[in-house]
């Protein structure tokens, strides 16, 4: 997982509420256990006109030329609701998204994204409305996400602060998932296990 500190990228405005994980990555694509290769199936039923995914829907936001290289997703309430599949953040990351901005996120989806290096930024509906106005009036707009200072800077230069759990922030900045975070203390863990073995040999 790559460390996350600051990212500037093209923002894709996806003006829908309650986007669930089945919409993000439909169930028929969950056969693989690798984290790669899911980006082509992201929002499959919206991006394509056919089941096989050979005919793009020209009206869908990510199929428009100006948004094909988007790395920031702007959307609405309750993003990532539904099942707990980790394939959803895999698909978003594989497509190229580093940041998702919305008023609220499903809890399990939020944690899965943090474990996969995606920054989720909760902002009030009023601030989201302002960003939608800026990004939909003129395409190819960029937003900057500064995790260290916990700010989002819109195309007009206006900055908004956001909240993030201290542990999630540390993991993203260091590029660590929870296992990686625990391995920082490998020497202490080994010393504890050795001490426990010496004090209570019958447990070993």
Give a written overview of the molecule.
The chain is of the alpha/beta class. The chain has one domain (6-203): Alpha-Beta Barrel (Aconitase, domain 4). Helix content is 33%, strand content 15%. The chain has eight helices and seven strands, in the order βααβαβαβαβββααα. The chain has helices at 21-24, 44-47, 87-95, 107-115, 125-137, 166-174, 178-183, 186-199; strands at 6-13, 72-74, 99-102, 119-122, 142-146, 151-153, 159-161. Strands 4-3-2-1-5-6-7 form a seven-stranded mixed sheet. A hairpin with a 5-residue loop joins strand 6 (151-153) and strand 7 (159-161).
Count of individual domains: 1
> What is the fourth-level CATH superfamily?
Aconitase, domain 4
Major pleated sheet: 7 strands, mixed
Q: Label the overall shape.
A: globular
How many helical stretches? 8
Q: Would you tell me which CATH topology applies?
A: Aconitase, domain 4
Q: Would you list the SSEs in sequence order as H and E?
A: EHHEHEHEHEEEHHH
> What is the architecture at the second tier of CATH?
Alpha-Beta Barrel
Strand order of the largest sheet: 4-3-2-1-5-6-7
User: What oligomerization state is this entry in?
Assistant: single chain
Which structural class is indicated by helix and strand composition?
Answer: alpha/beta
Report the mean per-residue pLDDT as an integer.
91
Name the poorly predicted regions.
none
Strand content: 5-15%
Gyration radius (Cα, Å) is 20 Å
Number of strands: 7
Helix content: 25-40%
